Amino acid sequence: MASSISTSASVTKCLFPVAGLGTRFLPVTKEIAKEMLPLVNRPIISYGVEEAVESGCSNIIMITGRTKRSIEDYFDTSFELETLLKTRRQTELYDKIQKISAMANILYARQSKPLGLGHAVLCGESFCQGEFFGVILPDDVFVADVAVMKQLIAVHEERGGTVVALEEVPRGEVSRYGIVRSEIDGNGIHRILDMVEKPSLDTAPSNYAIMGRYVLSPSIFPLLAEGHVGAGGEIQLTDAMKRLLKTEPVWGIVYKGKRFDCGTQKGWLAANIELALTDPELRPVVLQVVEDHRNR
Ligand code: UTP
């Protein structure tokens, strides 16, 4: 397939779809944004925003919905709090709080109905202004030496085109993910030939699943605007990418790092334990609790 895309300038914009209802985390997500649940002492979403900034994308748009206003408040300046901390000369805490709002340039757009991930991405079209852009699904939290979005952008800069993060999942779990069919080259980069959202075990073309990081071509927008309804009755990003494959290259890399699916209670709990174990003050607390249980 001849590519119409030449090697590209860097990606500087990132889109965060955060308008989902978080039903797997009910009842807490009835009124609290899933993205604001704590991972140790910071909300889940802050890990994704830091990853974007580390990857050179400090221009961010969040596609939000009802019950998500606390995300906006979190990244806004907190004048009263900052004044109080300054008055009390709590400099370290002041710096920490001040950095949150200074970290990135964040805009917000509402997805009025949760019609699916693809539809949420479409809501950010004007922000992307015809450029390639990153997409971060903040439920997927990565612990990695090199930010996973940065790993994807490196491939985009070298080869052009769209890039997705891949993980080999157990075959029994393929129906939870978008799954690709691909050819792997000598550098371990997948040229994606086909993809399918949430296939059954028998029809899955592989066990390489797309995880929540993408560098997307702006050509995705007209395809999303066609409004095809796919798996789960939602407008799926995977379906639009499958059509994109016909005209532009789509690459995949098995990211280097460890992923926690914080959209589920188990994944969120595991991430909290793992992160607490890396914190010198919290590690003894976790180990003590486990030890106490062993001795019961
Ligand atoms: P998920 O399906 O994993 O998240 O969507 P969800 O809908 O919030 O949670 P469950 O499945 O009900 O528990 C993947 C990503 O797409 C966003 C979600 O916020 C999440 O970041 N999304 C999904 C939207 O922004 N809008 C939608 O209509 C659907």
Write down the Rg. 20 Å
Number of strands: 13
Give the topology string: H per helix, E per strand: EEEHEHHHEHHEEHEEEEHHEEHH
Largest sheet: 5 strands, mixed, barrel
Strand content: 15-25%
Low-confidence stretches: 1-6
As for the CATH topology, it is Spore Coat Polysaccharide Biosynthesis Protein SpsA, Chain A
Characterize the structure shown.
Helix 3 (79-87) runs antiparallel to helix 4. The strands form three sheets. A five-stranded mixed beta barrel has the order 8-11-9-10-12. The protein has a two-stranded antiparallel sheet with strand order 2-3. The protein has helices spanning 44-54, 69-75, 79-87, 91-102, 117-122, 125-128, 148-159, 220-225, 237-244, 265-277, 283-294; strands at 13-17, 38-39, 42-43, 59-64, 105-110, 133-136, 140-143, 162-168, 178-184, 190-197, 208-216, 250-254, 258-261. The relative contact order is 0.16. A hairpin with a 2-residue loop joins strand 2 (38-39) and strand 3 (42-43). The chain is globular, with a radius of gyration of 20 Å. By secondary structure, it is of the alpha/beta class. The chain is built from eleven helices and 13 strands. The chain starts with 12 loop residues before the first strand and ends with a helix. It has a single domain (11-291), classed as Alpha-Beta Complex (Spore Coat Polysaccharide Biosynthesis Protein SpsA, Chain A). Residues 17-25, 63, 111, 114-117, 119-120, 137, 139, 263 line the site of uridine 5'-triphosphate.
